[in-house]
Amino acid sequence: MSTLPTAPNDMVLSDAFHDNLLGLPCLTLVCGKSEVRIARQGAQVLSWRASDGRERFYLSVQTGGAKQGEADASTLSPAIRGGVPICFPQFSVRGPILKHGFARAVPWTLESLVNHDAERSVAVLTLRDDARTRSIWPCSFVAQLTVALEADRLALTLQVTNSGDEAWPFTGALHSYLHVDDIAKAELAGLQGTHYQDATADNVEVIDPDGSIRIDAELDRVYLAPPASVQLREEGKPALQIGKTGFTDTVVWNPGPQLVQTLKDMPDDDWRHMLCVEAACASAPVIMQPGQTWIGSQVLSIA
Ligand SMILES: O=P(O)(O)OC[C@H]1O[C@@H](O)[C@H](O)[C@@H](O)[C@@H]1O
Question: Which parts of the chain span the membrane according to its record (predicted)?
Answer without folding.
Answer: none
